[in-house]
Design a protein that fits this description.
Mean pLDDT: 92
Distance between the termini: 78 Å
Radius of gyration: 24 Å
Shape: globular
Number of helices: 24
Strand content: 5-15%
Strand order of the largest sheet: 3-4-7-8
Low-confidence stretches: 374-381
Structural class: alpha+beta
Number of strands: 11
Largest sheet: 4 strands, mixed
Amino acid sequence: MMTPYKEQLLPLEKVFRDPVHNYIHVQHQVILDLIDTKEFQHLRRIKQLGTTSFTFHGAEHTRFSHSLGVYEVTRRICDFFLRNFPKEKMGAKGWDDSERLVALCAALLHDVGHGPYSHTFEHIFHTNHEEITQQIITSPETEIYQVLNRVEAGFPEKIAQVIAKTYPNPQVVQMISSQIDADRMDYLLRDAYYTGTEYGTFDLTRILRVIRPYENGIAFQINGMHAVEDYIVSRYQMYVQVYFHPTSRGMEVILDHLLNRAHFLFQKNPDFFNYSAPLLVPFLKQDFTLQDYLMLDDGVLNTAFLQWLKAPDKILADLAAHFLYRKPFKSVQFNSETDLEKLNQMKNIIEEVGYPTQYYTAINSSYDLPYDFYRPEAISHRTQIELLEPDGTLIELSQISPLVAALAGQGQKDERFYFPKEMLKCEEQSQLFEKKYQAFQDFILNGKIK
């Protein structure tokens, strides 16, 4: 009798060599088949950190490697839960291993809807990677759907529910998406490794030793609190030092303006874009299909930008050169409550020098909560990190950790005004604007608007 597809194991376990987890172990035929789909292979051509590689040159890793890493962390959690906390022994608060394949598939596929330079692209063309991830998983036209649908009828929809956080088993959902989940644990370690930032590391082995299932999700044994604290601090450091780095954001600003300019020009001269960037045309028209989306990757956008270096529009060509040759805008910190009038004066000077401020300036604010606790008045809530006492009592992390309490609810905000770096120097050939440059620089002291 043939083994059902969902239960088929590989004759010999397959491994992927990985710099973060050493080996990524694949045992299920379903997982290997998903990895081999064209939609998953597409992630090889999309960088995990977008423009961050312009600041940290080693950050060339892909969403493919991150997705494998999230799968591996999830696999290790499932193994640990089955060995120590099975439902058969623990009852409702234990782990039901019949959910393993759902968890593993959701972990592997959680980022499959990401496109090139994801967050900037989404902002310009109004796409949503989580919605597209669910489309890829549930659309009969994709290879991923064909693989998942072989498991059982309705299985693709189960995976999409995990991504949407509506799946009825909270243990599975929190394993993939919570304030300390397989996704975050992998990307923090992976991004720290590839950016060379040691302070982004934490003790994953210890965290995976103290993780516990309970009836309403995932918790952590209280004697592992310091490992969880270490994770929170690492996350804080990575956001401040890497994800919110001013130079990376300066390159994002250029990318944003470049795509906006292309979108504007397409309405006037579609023929130029039909031959210089044919794969982008459906998005410039704002009439694209799922297959159009899956044709995009970092290389497609970069090739279009190379073509735009020869564009008849000087602004498009100049912004393309700024992006391809790494000429980020400079920035200064400002206070949105007190400095707006000064910002307007600075913009006027930039305009007078000859830079259209719509394309050569930007206000960019980064914001993240290192850790958030439950607040009834909040519009949306994050899943709290719960610690498990020896008697089974749960206590929220910031209630007993002074370190986390100091970070909890305290958003890290960095407001910056971006502008051409030429505004900070007076070259001989620009003596005509020397007084303008000096007037602009008079607004700045120690990297801030004074």
